[in-house]
Amino acid sequence: MGWIPEEIDLTRPSAARMYDHFLGGSHNFAVDREAAAAAERAFPGVRLAVRANRSFLRRAVKYLVGKGIRQFLDLGSGIPTIGNVHEIAQGECPDARVVYVDIDPIAVGHGKRILADNPNAAAVLGDMRDPARLLDEPDVRDLLDFGRPVAVLMVAVLHFVPDSQDPWSMVAGYVDRLAPGGYLVVSHGTNEHFSEEETSSFETVREVYQRTTSPIVVRTSAEVAAFFAGLDLVDPGVVRLSDWRPDSEERWKSWCCGVGRKPLS
Ligand SMILES: C[S@@+](CC[C@H](N)C(=O)[O-])C[C@H]1O[C@@H](n2cnc3c(N)ncnc32)[C@H](O)[C@@H]1O
């Protein structure tokens, strides 16, 4: 199988490959499917959550294209699947530029393959926890002009950065580089709307992710709102996934999300 890089540890589940499995993709292994099944047994809503998350991503990108954004930096972009950011953005506006970044070699390897003929998009292997280094990557510098508005997407990825690594400062490292009119998009796991039973089931999910390459942490919506420090929150603010400018009847309560814009002055 040509899409499997040599450095992959096939004995340890990966959050990227589990997510791919939840979305019905094929870039995952038995170890990922077993971990995904354990998470799903404990918490049957997990598939609905990842679909609701993808749906939020689609709505947010369409919103931003409608606001004139033509540059996207998608951090923790995952294994390419249906509804990738470049497909949404370039579908509306062919000259839109997109750089995907992920720490998972399979996500990036597959991304490079599907983007080989796309001069306006690139996939970069990197760790978003080092903003200065990442923003200096040749593909990022070549494709994105931070002198003009860029949308930085951190969708379903900040819950892989523990408080001890200060994700708020890390996000500020990107926000500081945004030109006025640039945007930050965040979705994040939260359990604050859970019943007692759901909270205990979610503990099992957390334990499953503890065994992966990306242990998971959930935060309150107030902690998520703090990622938007210095930005103007787009209506309706930090809300549950399916309450952010919904275009369907789907309802999902366990994650929250928001979009913030860097003020013009
Ligand atoms: C749940 S997936 C989300 C994919 C996509 N953003 C979405 O919402 O559909 C999270 C991704 O973040 C990646 N990731 C985790 N920690 C990361 C880090 N420090 N730097 C870059 N990517 C990271 C994982 O490899 C995984 O592919």
TrEMBL record:
Organism from which the protein derives: Allokutzneria oryzae
GO biological process: methylation
UniProt enzyme class: transferase
The EC number(s) this enzyme carries: 2.1.1.-
Molecular function via GO: methyltransferase activity
Name assigned to this protein: SAM-dependent methyltransferase
Keyword terms, alphabetized: Methyltransferase, Transferase
Record InterPro entries: SAM-dependent_MTases_sf (IPR029063), SAM_dep_MeTrfase_SAV2177_type (IPR006764)
Stored SUPFAM superfamilies: S-adenosyl-L-methionine-dependent methyltransferases
One Pfam short name: Methyltransf_19
